[in-house]
């Protein structure tokens, strides 16, 4: 059986995922996309091997079995709620927005839908989820980004923090994963994913640094658990189209999609 896939958002992530689907993923077929710039998206999909329609967000769940959310965080509910009400699978990348719309989990439960959160630009979520089956006392993440990757974050604007022209690293935030997700909705969805995999958004802590000395988005995770103590670090190459997003994020979605229909699945 071939599962139909729709993509909500046709930017740095959505476009890459759509191209992979168009080239072919066993058991899956691209069915539709949605985009803010409809004309531009229509021109892009016209060049696909199998062109698909450009639809409004709310209609993606009609056209597909799986709806991938690659849109701005503020649009998560507009995409996810109608799809989940139809019993669809929603793959959510705006994981931070999910924390403030957690009733969507109840919607999924009532209608037989599912919300999947891919690993994205992070690593080690399998280990964190496994450790959470025992006991975890501490989860801390340190994120370092080039200053341009943090520009426009609501928290920075609210606090009057200017990261342009920095000559040395500056810690711009320390607090819970929940607060980080609200203050940096386009930057640290990884913090929300880490929190949901482990001990929750109010016990998971995060530091965010604007660092002019790095060219990549760095995330370091430190975990203290009954079953293990571990630390992991990843350095992600920013997307050319959107410096707030790492190139690995789109590839993580592709890997997660392949797991849905693969005869062999590796990882928890």
The number of domains is 2
Q: Approximately how much helix is present in the residues?
A: 25-40%
What name goes with the CATH superfamily of the largest domain? NAD(P)-binding Rossmann-like Domain
Give me the count of strands: 10
Secondary-structure arrangement, i.e. CATH architecture of the largest domain: 3-Layer(aba) Sandwich
Query: What is the N-to-C order of secondary-structure elements (H for helix, E for strand)?
Result: EHEHHEHEHHEHEHEHHEEEH
Gross geometry: globular
Largest sheet: 5 strands, parallel
SS content category: alpha/beta
Mean pLDDT: 95
Radius of gyration computed on alpha carbons: 18 Å
What share of residues are in beta strands? 15-25%
How does this structure look, described?
The longest helix is centred in the C-terminal third of the chain and has 15 residues. The radius of gyration is 18 Å and the shape is globular. It contains eleven helices and ten strands. It has two domains: 132 residues, 3-Layer(aba) Sandwich (Rossmann fold), CATH 3.40.50; 121 residues, Dihydrodipicolinate Reductase, domain 2. The strands form two sheets. It has a five-stranded parallel sheet, with helices on both faces. It has a five-stranded mixed sheet with strand order 7-8-6-9-10. It starts with a strand and ends in a 7-residue tail after the last helix. With 268 residues, it is an alpha/beta fold. The model has no long low-confidence stretch (mean pLDDT 95). The protein is 34% helix and 24% strand.
């Amino acid at each position: 059986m071939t599962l139909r896939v729709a993509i909500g958002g046709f930017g740095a992530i959505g476009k890459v995922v759509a191209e992979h689907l168009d080239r072919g993923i066993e058991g899956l077929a691209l069915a539709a996309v949605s985009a803010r710039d409809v004309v531009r998206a229509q021109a892009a999909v016209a060049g696909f091997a199998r062109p698909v329609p450009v639809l409004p967000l709310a209609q993606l769940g009609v056209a597909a079995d799986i709806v991938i959310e690659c849109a701005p965080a503020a649009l998560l509910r507009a995409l996810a709620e109608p799809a989940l009400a139809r019993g669809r699978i929603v793959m959510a990348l705006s994981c931070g927005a999910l924390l403030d719309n957690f009733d969507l989990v109840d919607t999924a439960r009532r209608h037989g839908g599912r919300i999947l959160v891919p690993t994205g630009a992070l690593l080690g979520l399998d280990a964190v989820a496994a450790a959470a089956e025992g006991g975890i006392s501490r989860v801390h993440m340190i994120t370092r980004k080039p200053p341009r990757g943090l520009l426009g974050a609501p928290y920075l604007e609210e606090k009057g923090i200017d990261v342009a022209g920095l000559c040395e690293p500056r810690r711009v935030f320390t607090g819970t994963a929940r607060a980080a997700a609200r203050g940096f909705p386009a930057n640290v969805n990884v913090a929300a994913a880490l929190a949901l995999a482990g001990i929750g958004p109010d016990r998971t802590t995060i530091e965010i640094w604007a660092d002019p000395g790095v060219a990549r988005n760095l995330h370091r995770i430190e975990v203290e658990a009954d079953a293990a103590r571990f630390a992991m670090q990843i350095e992600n190459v920013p997307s050319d189209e959107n410096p707030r997003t790492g190139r690995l994020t789109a590839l993580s979605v592709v890997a997660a999609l392949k797991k849905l229909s693969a005869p062999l699945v590796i990882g928890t």
